[in-house]
Amino acid sequence: MSVENTKTLAIIGQGYVGLPLAMAAVDAGWTVIGIDNFKAKVSQINSGSSPVEDVSTEQLQAALSSGAYKATVDFSEVAQAAVITICVPTPLNEKREPDLELLRNATNGIAPFISNETLVVSESTSYPGTLRDVIIPIINEFKPQESKNLFFACAPERVNPGDSFWNQKNTPRLVGAIDATSKSKAQEFYESICDVVVLVSTPEVAEAAKLLENTFRLVNIALVNEFTQLCFENGINVHDVIEAAGTKPYGFMPFRPGVGVGGHCIPVDPLYLTWWARQSGGSAAFVESADSINQSMPRYVADRALSMIDANENNPKVLILGVAYKPGVGDVRETPVSELRNALISYGADVAWHDPLVSNWEGTNSVGLDWDCDVAILATNQPGINVTQLTERGIQVLDCTNSVKNLAGVTLL
Ligand SMILES: NC(=O)c1ccc[n+]([C@@H]2O[C@H](COP(=O)([O-])OP(=O)(O)OC[C@H]3O[C@@H](n4cnc5c(N)ncnc54)[C@H](O)[C@@H]3O)[C@@H](O)[C@H]2O)c1
Question: How many CA atoms within 13 Å lie on the side-chain side of 219?
């Protein structure tokens, strides 16, 4: 059965990855069943309200009303699908090691209902071997007896939430499959929704490539975060240095310092790599070191901000601007601003925060820019934050985002 014959796709997980994929597939002519085990989210989606910034409510409503898309909690609906993609979270556990429980649950959920000749693709980020050693054995154990021929591939998602240029269609898609038929089915499927499909030799190459991509970002951010501290100690403006180095036309890529790394990917995926290295008796010491430098940044930023105000102030009032892990989204997962807030509180500061895209976070509400404070920290450059409202009142601002240029009262990290 060609995947083009039925053109029914089931996507497990309707979050930042699964819902945009659903919309891209609807645009490409697929009938999409979006499966999620979070009932409230399924109801929200089916009511036409999009839970993610990259899918507009208009786009979602059009897909729902055309009949080409619906969300459901019913895993048995995968029986209708020619292709199933798994897009569930792959977080860290409390030991900061891979936690595949949600991936295993999702796989267990679909396994008894998969029809013969179905292509199952993992898009979730994980360590090399996850498709072959975790997903396939679960499916083989629980699949219906008549489902003799199943096909498997790995196609790690590269979506960058909030990015108005790169999307599901124009971002090249890596595909690694377990055999030739799986490869051609996966190629056919992804070519129906993506401009460029890059076939790699095995699923493990695709899985490892995804970890390399995100680890590359982690270590370069750590490098510039460490470099920033060295420059500051020596009275050199690190941003001037980055701009100077950036004039080299080859072999250099500028990264900027910040409060740390956040979100579902950059702080998490490299730890899948370090764990994977340890499983074979090796180590990824360089990555571990980068992780610890980034982990130290929130306290460094707290120290820098508090050094900007009167040392005799016992309970300084600090306003944090932007708490989401990056601009343009309301996503606070793994945001380094959480540790920044903890560090400030540990120093006895009275801390409030303002974020136009986040109303409630860690049990507290966003305050207005008129909140009375001694110093402010621009942690995430959210659209809608106007720091002049603070500087005009004589409040010093530490800009950790390199986005406020030449404004009196603003100091760059
Ligand atoms: N968000 C990103 O920027 C991004 C980018 C590339 C890759 N990824 C990877 O994609 C995967 C998904 O990430 P996300 O950001 O979309 O997560 P998300 O939290 O936004 O969405 C995941 C959805 O899966 C649902 N879910 C959890 N367990 C489930 C289960 N057992 N059965 C059915 N549904 C279940 C959740 O309710 C949620 O709606 C992760 O592996 C992540 O690392 C994420």
Answer: 16
What is the atom index within ligand 1 of the atom nearest the CA of 13?
24
Distance (Å, rounded) from C-alpha 163 to C-alpha 203? 27
Tell me the chain's radius of gyration from C-alpha atoms. Answer: 23
- CA dist 106 and 103 (Å) reads 5
β-strands 83-86, 119-122: how paired?
parallel
Token pair in block for residue 10:
């089931």
Specify the residue with its C-alpha closest to ligand 1, atom 31: 106
Structure tokens at 324: 């989401």
- Give yes or no for residue 189 CB within 6 A of ligand 1: no
157 lines ligand 1 (CB under 6 A): yes
Instruction: Decide: 36 in ligand 1 pocket, CB within 6 A.
Output: yes
Residue 304, token pair as written in the block: 């820098």
Q: Note if 154 is an active site residue.
A: no
**Smallest Cα–Cα separation from 106: which of 198, 239, 15?**
15
Instruction: Say how far apart CA 413 and CA 381 lie, in whole Å.
Output: 13
Q: What is the mean pLDDT of each run of 10 residues along the chain (413 residues)?
A: 70 96 96 98 97 93 98 97 98 96 98 97 98 98 94 95 87 98 98 97 98 97 98 96 97 96 93 96 96 97 94 86 93 95 96 96 95 96 94 96 92 94
Q: What is the pTM of this model?
A: 0.92
